[in-house]
UniProtKB/TrEMBL annotation:
UniProt-listed PROSITE patterns: FAD_PCMH
Alphabetically ordered keywords of this record: FAD, Flavoprotein, Oxidoreductase
Protein name per UniProt: FAD-binding oxidoreductase
InterPro entries for this protein: FAD-bd_oxidored_4_C, FAD-bd_PCMH, FAD-bd_PCMH-like_sf, FAD-bd_PCMH_sub2, FAD-linked_Oxase-like_C, FAD-linked_OxidoTrans_Type4, Oxid_FAD_bind_N, Vanillyl_alc_oxidase_C-sub2
PANTHER family named among the record's database cross-references: GLYCOLATE OXIDASE SUBUNIT GLCD
Record organism: Lactiplantibacillus plajomi
Cofactor(s) essential for the protein: FAD
Amino acid sequence: MSVTTPIKSVSEQLITALGAQAVRTGDQITADWGHDELGTVAHRPDIVVTPKTTTEVAKVAKLASAAKMPLTTRGSGTGLVGGCVPTEGGILLDMSAMNHIIGLDEANLTVNVQAGVQLKTLADYAQDKGYLYAPDPGEKTATIGGNIATNAGGMRAVKYGVTRESVRALTVVTIEGQVLHLGGQVVKNSSGFDLKDLYIGSEGTLGIVTEAVLKVSPLPKVSTGLLIPFDDFKAALITVPKILQSGILPTAVEFFEADTVKYWEAFKKQAFPQSGAAAYLLMTLDGQQDAVVEQNYETLAELCLDNGATDAYVLDTPELKANVWKARDSFLEAIQASTTTMDEADAVVPCDQTAAFVSFTHDLAKQENVRIPGFGHVGDGNLHLYVCQDDYADDVWQKKLMTVFTALYNKSIELGGKVSGEHGIGYAKRQYLQATSDAAEIDTMQRVKQALDPNNLLNPDKIV
């Protein structure tokens, strides 16, 4: 991509438009702005801009468009697919200063936020006001804009849906600097193309989300959990569709196996509660009445016991529930600590195919002589699998990684699934999306991209 205007000229125009404090160049740009949590994809931007308002974002976009300079948007940089890496340099739009919660609309059960607000900040704010912001991705320091960019899911998606289901309205800046106000305080909308949904999950390749109106709901008065051990992972996973068919919808249904528990015990140097099983289901249930929640968890416990569970432990104290879920939240760190380097697949399959998919990963690990530990949100079929380098030399591991990823994604498609359930495609997973998608689907995505970003300036090299 050729930049038609020199970087120095663009940076001077940006300083004039936003002030010197909002613009960084040269040695002011550290390596942190050139990568996300994936780490293996890195490239520093030429200019970093930190806007505070939608108007300032529009000014940046207009200048980037005129200069034909790449423009990449970054939140907290917690992504795992190189999605916010400015692979062609240019301008990096750091949204961290757009971190204000604009207000809560209790009558319409919505909250209005800037895109740089962190998930944990919004969740705590809503809870303090007596409300629940339902999306619950594992990385709590991720920004709301980043969650919207990837349509992030998380543990509560089985009951409350992914981020898309909680977005009522968006403010989006186009590459030409136009400001779009999409959606609104309405629950229903059949007024033309649903452009709001087009931008959700587009990973900053079609426009820049600057504000969002998000759905909240009254905070559940009661919440409890169940830890269900099984002697066989297939029995655990085959039980999940039966749970979903029971008429009782858990808030979360998580799955993990003995090897993941062992990595966590070594990492934390403590015993996991009720360790020793081959596999576990971990559920939460919430509601407004104690009696209803109690009846629901008793029913689900009996269902699991009737389908091969060896026991059912009710996490009926805040301390016990917190301890088990704190362990679940640190499984990723534990696996990371057990190896030299790793990469992740977050494939998603239909819920009734999770047993077949996990069985395939076991066979693949033996076949390729590589560790593939994992865990997942099996209530919605989303599995997180980690391919570990261990003692392999870098060149050998890279080949093995590609072989394993290709096999995993091909299997997920064969089972009716998709390449990514919640992390997105970004830079790192493009080849797998291309290889597992219909040509007509990829062509349609490219035509949308061409229509909304004809010079390929917005987050280039991502998705398609």
